[in-house]
Design a protein that fits this description.
Elements (H helix, E strand, L loop, with lengths): L3 H13 L6 H17 L1 H12 L3 H27 L2 E2 L10 E8 L2 E5 L7 H12 L3 E5 L5 H9 L10 E3 L4 H8 L5 E5 L2 H12 L5 E4 L5 E4 L5 H13 L11 E4 L1 H19 L15 H10 L4 E4 L3 E2 L4 E2 L2 E4 L16 E6 L3 H9 L6 E5 L3 H9 L5 E4 L20 E2 L5 H6 L1 E8 L17 H10 L9
Parallel strand pairs: 3-4, 3-6, 4-5, 6-7, 8-9, 8-15, 9-14, 13-14, 15-16
Antiparallel strand pairs: 1-2, 2-18, 7-17, 10-13, 11-12
Helix pairs in contact: 2-4, 3-4, 3-6, 4-5, 9-10
Length: 466
């Protein structure tokens, strides 16, 4: 096998030769990725079941289908996305052509997580390939089954002169980050995100950081408790809670909590049966390390629903905690498991104040029969995404970007946003070689008259050429 240095040099040489720039080459890579998804659907589902005990339903709708939609959208729109984008002109530059060119960055690194190991690996890859980059893909070593498929099967479908899968754990990733890349896309925790950003800063490499956080879910007194319980339980316990945009804790009044608890119990029983451990629809915790961390969180507050666990099966029951303190670990760290704390507040204003004194989350949810309440939460808070009266269904819409703010990350992707993320938007102006007489007003010696003419020519009211 090539050394790391040889692999990176090979990819750089491919990019510098211009191989990845033509639309035909980019489309061929995307078509290869599409065939990989179609040909290996069962293999990927088996890997996801091995890693996370995902049902075929969850694997299909949250992993494979979303990847296929991304590829197909990129293939349909690739040439249009690649076109130069004309821009407005002023009178001063009326004879020039101005536009934005979308250029590939070069050699990009995509570091993927383990919780959605197909989706969160391949969706950024779609954007990187569509934008004409060479790509180093680093799948998570924790989701071993999926990592094996991505490392052994995916390269057969892509041109290996512009693509490589590199394996390993934190040590290997650290060595990888010592090298210079033209762009780094990382999905993971804020703690590791800081490490990635520090490494990127040494080379002034731009980054997208898709991080996590504690996503609040405010439930207003006006809500129907069973409707809220159904939606919150579905999105909290999907993938055994191992979702970066899942509702992380509920904020509600004491009265709403008392109505919500039996409704949540009914929803959990309806979804997973009397014994959720036997349900084929409930996933498992990815590793013993994560299981141990989550088991420790079960000691926070008081268990109102669930609380059972089985270390040998890496099973933690769908759980609801009450009477938790803000200082306890379950309210300090992202849970990333099937545990839902409920925190009581006295009013909507108190809930908003609670949210705003914490780090900005990746997602924020508000449930109310009043559109004014939902709008107030939206208007008076900040988060990567916001949903009223539902969960993370926005992830199915390629017209909406996914991205954090503050502690929950920077940058955005999905659909055309992915193409734009992996493209350098180059400002271009092409002036005519003649017509020099028109330029005389900008040359010294300066005069008040020429200054006034230039101010007039570059004014915001000037004509535009598109």
């Amino acid at each position: 096998m090539d050394s790391l240095e040889d692999t990176l040099q090979r990819l750089r040489d491919t990019f510098r030769a211009g191989r990845t720039r033509p639309a035909e080459f980019r489309a061929a890579q995307l078509e290869g990725l599409n065939r990989f998804l179609q040909d290996n659907k069962q293999l990927l589902q088996e890997a996801l079941a091995e890693d996370l005990h995902k049902s075929a339903f969850e694997s299909d709708i949250s992993e494979l289908l979303l990847c296929q939609n991304e590829v197909e959208l990129a293939l349909r729109n690739l040439r249009n996305w690649m076109k130069d984008e004309p821009t407005a002109n002023s009178l001063l530059t009326k004879t020039s052509s101005t536009f934005i060119r979308k250029e590939p960055f070069g050699l990009v690194l995509v570091i993927a997580p383990w919780n959605y190991p197909v989706n969160l690996t391949l969706v950024p890859l779609v954007g990187a390939l569509a934008a004409g980059n060479c790509v180093v893909l680093k799948p998570s070593e924790i989701s071993k089954g999926t990592e094996k498929v991505l490392a052994e099967v995916l390269p057969r479908y892509l041109d290996q002169s512009c693509f490589a899968v590199l394996l390993g754990g934190p040590e290997e990733t650290g060595r990888l980050l010592e090298h210079r890349f033209d762009y780094i896309f990382f999905t993971g925790s804020p703690r590791v995100g800081r490490i990635v950003m520090t490494a990127a800063a040494k080379h002034l490499t731009p980054v997208t950081l898709e991080l996590g956080g504690k996503n609040p879910c405010y439930v207003d007194d006006s809500c129907d408790p069973q409707t809220v319980a159904n939606r919150v339980a579905f999105f909290r316990y999907f993938n055994a809670g191992q979702t970066c945009v899942a509702p992380d804790y509920v904020l509600c009044s004491p009265a709403t909590r008392e109505r919500l608890l039996p409704a949540l119990q009914r929803a959990i029983t309806r979804f997973f049966g009397e014994d959720p451990q036997r349900s084929p629809n409930l996933g498992r915790i990815i590793s013993e390390k994560q299981f141990g961390r989550l088991q420790g969180l079960l000691g926070c507050g008081r268990v109102a629903i669930g609380g059972q666990s089985d270390e040998g099966d890496r099973y933690i029951a769908p759980t609801v905690l009450v009477d938790v303190k803000e200082t306890e670990p379950v309210m300090q760290e992202e849970i990333f498991g099937p545990i839902l704390p409920i925190v009581t507040v006295g009013s909507l204003d108190e809930a908003i104040e609670f949210i705003n004194r914490r780090e900005k989350p990746l997602a924020l949810y508000a449930f109310s029969s009043s559109s004014q309440v939902v709008s107030q939460v939206l208007d008076q808070t900040s988060s990567g995404s916001f949903t009223g009266n539902d969960g993370f269904t926005f992830l199915t819409l390629l017209s909406l970007p996914l991205g954090g703010v503050g502690n929950s990350g920077m940058g955005r992707y999905h659909g055309k946003f992915s193409f734009d993320t992996f493209s350098h938007h180059r400002s271009c102006l092409l002036a005519p070689p003649g017509l020099e007489k028109l330029n005389e007003i900008r040359y010294p010696p300066y005069s008040d008259r020429n200054q006034q003419l230039i101010r007039w020519a570059v004014g915001t009211w000037s004509c535009t050429i598109l």
